[in-house]
Amino acid sequence: MTTDSTAPGVRIRDLTVVYKTPAGELPAVSGVDLTLTPGTITGIVGESGSGKSTLALSLLNAVQPPGRIAKGSVEIDGLGDVLTLGGEDLRRARGRQVGYVFQAAQNSLNPLKSIGKQLLDLGRSHDVADLRALVRDAKDLLARMGMDGARVLDSHQHELSGGMRQRVGIMLALALNAKVVVLDEPTTALDMITQATILRIIREIHEERSLTTLIITHDVGAVAEVADDLAVMYGGRVVEHGPINEVIGAPAHPYTRGLIRAIPRLSGDISLARALPGRPPTLGTLPVAGCVFRERCDTRMEVCETAEPAAVVRGGRTAACHALEHSPAPVRRKEYA
Ligand SMILES: Nc1ncnc2c1ncn2[C@@H]1O[C@H](COP(=O)(O)OP(=O)(O)OP(=O)(O)O)[C@@H](O)[C@H]1O
């Protein structure tokens, strides 16, 4: 872990984000508390629909209708509560203070402009004084990711493969030297080897620049190589969070155990690897009371039907499960300094 005082901390508190549906407004993210320690990489994992992207968008106050941030705060050191920012302040913060690659990065480039022109537009819109340096840095970043920087900057999106566009997205997220970087599925279009290389480069740049980084992925195995902390989402909740080695080595939540069991290279035994049975809930099928994971849980108890488990803290780890609350080990309620 890089503990550098210049890296900002991020504190998400009681964040609830809802989407308007025919059945009314339903929560995609519910009462999430999550702290990103300055200088760390946090991986967020969870099955499709668990709320990862919605949480990432909230860090930029970028949830779009039919979505709405209903409650909570996202405090970033040096920026304040992002959810209170609007207009020009928000536009400036995006890219400059919080760099991001959204999930659809591959498709979010402008098809009519070369990558270089888009880079210059980005620089100009953020009043970058030295555009030459911006281009030089961009070429360096692209070269580190295994591409011919000059050629990529001259190219239009249709001339690049999905994997190349994804790397361009990462370059654009890093181009303005933001200190908080949010990467939503940054490597999904890449083969396994390139994926590992790009994640390693992200780690290197993270350390060189003293960043605080959030990486969202389906792939616990991939993020395990680079992250310091892991947050596990299910049904719009962060059900477990803590140092990644501890969470993977001794998962406290039954959902985390299921996720890890499904990955032989983490569980260490291919004969034991088995898929988590059942399906994750959708907005429409999320239970309104009790634990959201109970339908798929192998340690389900009576209380899980009616009461939502509170997050409990043990050392630097949190997990929200009734089985933990009822276990004999000392447990203290979640609290914040
Ligand atoms: N624009 C929208 N309108 C309605 N519901 C939405 C919208 N965007 C997301 N949702 C719902 O919110 C929930 C969380 O979605 P989100 O995309 O944040 O999850 P995710 O964990 O990032 O999933 P994935 O890994 O598939 O990207 C899902 O049930 C999804 O269907």
TrEMBL record:
<dbReference type="GO" id="GO:0016887">
    <property type="term" value="F:ATP hydrolysis activity"/>
</dbReference>
<keyword id="KW-1003">Cell membrane</keyword>
<dbReference type="InterPro" id="IPR003439">
    <property type="entry name" value="ABC_transporter-like_ATP-bd"/>
</dbReference>
<dbReference type="GO" id="GO:0015833">
    <property type="term" value="P:peptide transport"/>
</dbReference>
<dbReference type="InterPro" id="IPR027417">
    <property type="entry name" value="P-loop_NTPase"/>
</dbReference>
<dbReference type="InterPro" id="IPR050388">
    <property type="entry name" value="ABC_Ni/Peptide_Import"/>
</dbReference>
<protein>
    <submittedName>
        <fullName>Oligopeptide/dipeptide ABC transporter ATP-binding protein</fullName>
    </submittedName>
</protein>
<dbReference type="GO" id="GO:0005886">
    <property type="term" value="C:plasma membrane"/>
</dbReference>
<comment type="similarity">
    <text>Belongs to the ABC transporter superfamily.</text>
</comment>
<keyword id="KW-0813">Transport</keyword>
<feature type="domain" description="ABC transporter">
    <location>
        <begin position="10"/>
        <end position="260"/>
    </location>
</feature>
<keyword id="KW-0547">Nucleotide-binding</keyword>
<keyword id="KW-0067">ATP-binding</keyword>
<dbReference type="Pfam" id="PF08352">
    <property type="entry name" value="oligo_HPY"/>
</dbReference>
<dbReference type="InterPro" id="IPR013563">
    <property type="entry name" value="Oligopep_ABC_C"/>
</dbReference>
<dbReference type="GO" id="GO:0005524">
    <property type="term" value="F:ATP binding"/>
</dbReference>
<dbReference type="Pfam" id="PF00005">
    <property type="entry name" value="ABC_tran"/>
</dbReference>
<dbReference type="InterPro" id="IPR003593">
    <property type="entry name" value="AAA+_ATPase"/>
</dbReference>
<keyword id="KW-0472">Membrane</keyword>
